[in-house]
């Protein structure tokens, strides 16, 4: 394939962009720090990020793909750091530990399966499993679609993460095409579509609409 000549270039670009995507979590942590509380912020993107990076790291090791190995190691490290910040400022630490414990158990079970699966089948079957989990994680913000429509606000959606996720999905889709890996292609094609769907919500419902309305009402009362 002609594109195969650009494998390293595309892989490096995807690596750098994915690092930038993972670092957008610092914006959420900055907001938590400035407010002095993690109240109103969902920990699942961080918990899911840790779990998914660990699982994808295992898949990368199966494929022996250096670009995927390095980026998932970086992802585990950054998401653990974000989770620590969230935990420190969380008013419901027991609930956070409960969710983290369940996620850890689930990841351990999946990794255990990968260890006992036969070598000739593990790449395909584990690939299917990680693809399903990846798409659930990417599409999870859409679970709040009803609330977004009701409030006509996307304030609960992390725009930086979604925007960068769109760029990342596109680049890894190209990389998947180059190395001809059907799971990477499927993951990132569907991930790209889900990210674009989420971005469209920002065009329909401004993220600050409710805040502005409350401010206007507050100003009127003061007058």
Report what the structure shows.
Mean pLDDT is 83; it is low at 209-223. By secondary structure, this protein is mainly α. It has helices at residues 7-23, 25-35, 44-63, 66-89, 93-116, 119-139, 145-151, 159-179, 182-204, 209-222.
Question: Which structural traits does this protein have?
Answer:
223 residues, mainly alpha, 10 helices, 82% helix, 0% strand, globular, disordered C terminus
3D shape: globular
Instruction: Write down the secondary-structure element order.
Output: HHHHHHHHHH
Ends distance = 69 Å
Poorly predicted runs of 5 or more residues: 209-223
Q: How many strand segments? A: 0
Biggest sheet layout = none
What is the typical, i.e. mean, pLDDT?
Answer: 83
Total helices: the number is: 10
Q: Structural class, judged by helices and strands?
A: mainly alpha
Oligomer: single chain
- The percent of residues in helical segments reads over 70%
Strand content: under 5%
Radius of gyration: 19 Å
Itemize the secondary structure elements and their pairings:
Blueprint: H1 7-23, H2 25-35, H3 44-63, H4 66-89, H5 93-116, H6 119-139, H7 145-151, H8 159-179, H9 182-204, H10 209-222
Helix pairs in contact: 1-4, 1-8, 2-4, 3-4, 3-5, 3-6, 6-9, 8-9
């Amino acid at each position: 394939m002609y594109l195969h000549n650009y494998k390293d270039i595309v892989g490096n670009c995807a690596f750098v962009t994915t690092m930038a995507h993972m670092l957008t979590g610092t914006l959420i942590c900055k907001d938590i720090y400035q407010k002095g509380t993690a109240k109103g912020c969902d920990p699942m993107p961080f918990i899911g990020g840790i779990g998914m990076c660990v699982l994808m790291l295992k898949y990368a090791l199966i494929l022996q793909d250096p670009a995927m190995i390095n980026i998932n190691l970086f992802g585990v490290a950054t998401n653990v750091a974000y989770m620590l910040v969230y935990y420190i400022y969380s008013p419901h630490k027991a609930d956070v530990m409960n969710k983290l414990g369940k996620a850890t158990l689930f990841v351990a079970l999946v990794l255990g399966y990968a260890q006992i699966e036969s070598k000739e089948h593990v790449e395909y079957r584990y690939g299917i499993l990680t693809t399903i989990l990846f798409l659930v994680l990417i599409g999870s913000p859409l679970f709040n679609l009803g609330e977004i429509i009701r409030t006509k606000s996307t304030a609960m959606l992390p725009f930086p993460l979604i925007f960068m996720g769109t760029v990342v999905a596109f680049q890894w889709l190209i990389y998947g095409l180059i190395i001809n890996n059907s799971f990477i292609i499927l993951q990132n094609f569907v991930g790209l579509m889900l990210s674009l769907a989420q971005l469209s919500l920002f065009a329909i419902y401004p993220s600050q609409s409710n805040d502005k309305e409350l401010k206007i009402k507050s100003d009127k009362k003061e007058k």
